[in-house]
Amino acid sequence: xxxxxxxxxxxxxxxxxxxxxxxxxxxxxxxxxxxxxxxxxxxxxxxxxxxxxxxxxxxxxxxxxxxxxxxxxxxxxxxx
Length: 80
Description:
alpha+beta, globular
């Protein structure tokens, strides 16, 4: 997966995480939105590891977002 948007800095991401504003959001048609709060410790983990925390329940057509404070970044699957 790659980031379709960017954040100002990793320092900002860590500050937001410390304040409880960093979340992984999964939206799939016909299902409830799944929101997983992330911590400062999660900031340095690979996105694939964070997605694995949610289990195998992420359908291929689901939209996955990283919410950092007010900023919403859509994560897209790499082709190939």
